[in-house]
Amino acid sequence: MAARLTRDDVAKVAHLARLTLSDEELDLFTDQLGQILGHADDIAALKLDGVEATAHPFGLVNVVRSDEVRASLSRDEVLAMAPDAREGRFAVPRILGEAP
Amino acid sequence: MRSATQIAADVKSGATTAEAELDKSLAVVAARNEELNVFLYVDEEGARAQARAVDEQVRAGAELGRLAGVPIALKDNLCQRGVPTTCSSRILEGWRPPYDATVVERVLAAGAVAIGKTNLDEFAMGSSTETSAFGPTRNPLDPSRVPGGSSGGSAAAVAAEMTTIALGSDTGGSIRQPAALCGLVGMKPTYGLVSRYGLIAFASSLDQIGPFAKTVEDAALLLEVIAGHDPMDSTSLPEGSPSLVAHVNDGVGAKRVGLVRELIEGADDEVVASVTRAAEVLRAAGAEIVELSIPEIKLGLSAYYLLAPAEASSNLARFDGVRYGLRVDAENVTAMNEATRTLGFGAEVKRRIMLGTYALSAGYYDAYYGQALKVRTQMISAFRAAYQQVDLLLGATTPSVAFQFGEKSENPMAMYLSDVFTIPTNLAGEAAVSVPFGLGASGLPIGVQLLGPGRSEAALFAGARVLEIAEGR
Predict the structure, then answer these.
(1) Which CATH number covers residue A22?
(2) Chain B residues with CB inside 8 Å of A90's CB?
(3) Of A74, B24, B115, B308, which shows the fewest CB atoms inside 10 Å?
(4) Computed over its alpha carbons, how large is the radius of gyration of chain A?
(5) What is the H or E stretch that residue B155 is in?
(6) Residue B171 within a domain
(7) How far is B170 from chain A, CA to nearest CA, in Å?
(8) What is the ipTM of this complex?
(9) Per the domain annotation, does B303 fall within a domain?
(10) What band does A3 get if pLDDT is binned at 50, 70 and 90?
(11) How many domains does chain B have?
(12) Using the beta-carbon criterion (under 8 Å), do B299 and A19 form an inter-chain contact?
């Protein structure tokens, strides 16, 4: 059985997932996620040492296509749907300290 | 109401026109959409152009597609070029896809008329449409109750006779559960049978697109149109579309059908009674009924609620305010990402992203995600062993008929339990169909589920058809 989920765990996970939670949300989610993970204790406790993991139902292998030029999406159409685009690129706020 | 099969035949013969059928659909939408909140967007202009193009083909004597002039509803997690696609989330509000999903391309090529985009639980995470950022859809059979979810809008569109057919997606029951609650046929096809290109991903190893219809034949027709290999989806099976419509009346003679204890355990008495009666009908039609137990099914819910959120936490990382939809401005990129996601996602989506992030995080990966992947292996082996003994499996689709708004929405675990009978099929990558069979005491429909191994869709539809005939449809 895994350790009980704490409020600090939830705060850490929210940061990793880039979500800001209010104090009330932290309390609520700690409670709710704890309940859901409590339900999962039944499988956390199983002895499955010799069992292979399945990530895909039919044992997917890599699929390659021939190296041919094909039509792709129009750059302008894609960029037109972005919140901000400049000079044919997606635009974002500054990443580093200095001005752009 | 006429079936899609009949509408397409009438359009071909000239007994009706695509535009007249479109007008009938739009009239029902105009009368009931405000009350039921089925469509988030009605593409009247686009639909009219599609209908006129079909009518022009009829006049020119051109060869028509198999869905010629049939209005169809599309779940709003399927991309349609130029048409707003939101996944019922604020984070995609205003985004219009620059391409068609393969399934959209295929139904339009077959002559269907796409009248709009239907409501869903946000990013398909839910079982009632109550997590939609744009309000819940009401069940047309009883507007005080949920239509089920996540494809609740698509189910309600058909149940309200706004369209005869609709497309949904099923990650843990999101087609079969609303089909059951709205009295429709709904199928989750074999993983890889239908291309996922243009389906906005929730849990990529579990998601599959499938049909809603009032009749087995229409569901089979729609699945035939959308199925088959697509080079744009590397998980798409190599084969072409199977022959389904030609086999709907094949019956169940000489088939062995397993009545699965774990697929009725915990269901309401009236649901169990419907499943038992379905077994009797199948036996009378020539099937041999075998009672069996698949204990691994009980672990499905726990495994699913680790695997699906884990995949979702990764898939939904792409919604960061850079490429589509919402952006909340902030002083730097990280703050912008966080502010956008915090405002753009609703509570259930946040809950699942955090659950998945936790299940994948250092120190917990082995205990949760790793264990769930192994349980998935056991589930696949257990079903494989069952299909050594029997051809198909039988059980309930949902534990109860349609529930009331608010009944489960405050308690995530109670909501998750409504998918307990449908989740195992997604984990195994196999196929299952829900068919309406009997009514509960409230007068609401009960769904019975037939499950089969990969690519057993023809046998599943044939079994469902036997039950449909017994119900006088």
Answers:
(1) 1.10.20
(2) 322-323
(3) A74
(4) 23
(5) helix B152-159
(6) yes
(7) 15
(8) 0.92
(9) no
(10) low
(11) 1
(12) no
